[in-house]
Structure formats: structure tokens, C-alpha cells
Amino acid sequence: MYTIFDRSHTETIIKRIDRLSEHSRPKWGKMNVAQMLAHCSAFQDIAIGNTSPPRGLLGIVVGRMAKPIFFNDKPLPVNMSTIPSLLIADDKHFERERERLKQKILTFQQNGPEKCTSHPHPFFGKLTPEQWGKGIFKHLDHHLKQFGV
């Protein structure tokens, strides 16, 4: 399984982000490309430990049992629900969001597994650094596919 802690996997993700343009359109979902970049950046903030959204009731009840469904080699389903605090509805500046996300990805990758947050994921609960690395890659891959790159 791919992980953002592998430098070659990170480079692939960055190259795909660079192929986006402010005119990229989603194949599914409601976010535009700048909002998607801001959404992914907000997810990075959780993994880095900059933010710690509270766990929702659904996550507390089924999050642990859902881990095997998420942490596998299958792509994420389109139009899946997201953590409410990561919903981006306001206008964002494409170039600024793209550069911000790339920097956060590179920082996370360079910091390595030992710098992952120990705060539980808002849905899945406690994650190992390995799960964070795989989850970050899978989340980014999902949204880049959403915009055709």
C-alpha cells in the first residue's frame, strides 16, 4: 500500500498536484479545485497535530470497525462523507492553496512517522503513524482522481 512517508510516493502526489489548474473540474462532488486543495490541507493539519477536531458519535461507535474498509488497497468511494470541520464552502485562492498543500505534504513526509499526531482521528480514532501515512496518501489520491489527475 502507498504511503506519504515514501519519498517516491510523495513526489508522485506533488507532480499530480502540479498538473491541476484553476480550471480543473471535479468528476464528482461539490467542491471546486481550490476548495479541494484547502480541504486536503486541513486534513494535513490533523495529521501534523495542528488541529484536533473532536470525535463524532458515529466515529466513536463504528470508526474502529471501519478501519479495515479504509486501510486497504481499494480506492475510496466517490461522494463519501467527510469530517464536518473539513468541509470547505467559502472561496479560496487556487495558487495559494496549492502551494500551502504541497508545503504541508513535504513537511509531513520530511518529519517522518515519529512526528505524527497522537491525537485520535476524528472518525477512526487512534491511528498508528503507518496508518496516518497510508491514510494521507489515500485521501490525496482520492481527491486528485476527483479532478482527473
The N- and C-terminal alpha carbons lie at a distance of: 19 Å
Number of beta-strand segments? 0
Q: What is the general shape?
A: globular
Q: Kindly estimate the percentage of residues that lie in beta strands according to DSSP.
A: under 5%
Structural class: mainly alpha
Q: Biggest β-sheet: count, sense, barrel?
A: none
CA-atom Rg in angstroms: 14 Å
Return the domain count.
1
Low-confidence stretches: none
Write down the secondary-structure element order.
Answer: HHHHH
Number of helix segments?
Answer: 5
Task: Give average pLDDT, whole number.
Answer: 94
Please describe what this structure looks like.
This protein is mainly α. The model has no long low-confidence stretch (mean pLDDT about 95). It has one domain. It has helices spanning about 5-20, 35-50, 55-70, 95-110, 130-145. The chain contains 5 helices and no strands. It starts with 6 loop residues before the first helix and ends with a helix. The chain is globular. Helices cover about 50% and strands about 0% of the residues. Helix 2 packs parallel to helix 4 (about 95-110). It comes from Gracilibacillus salinarum. This is DUF1569 domain-containing protein.
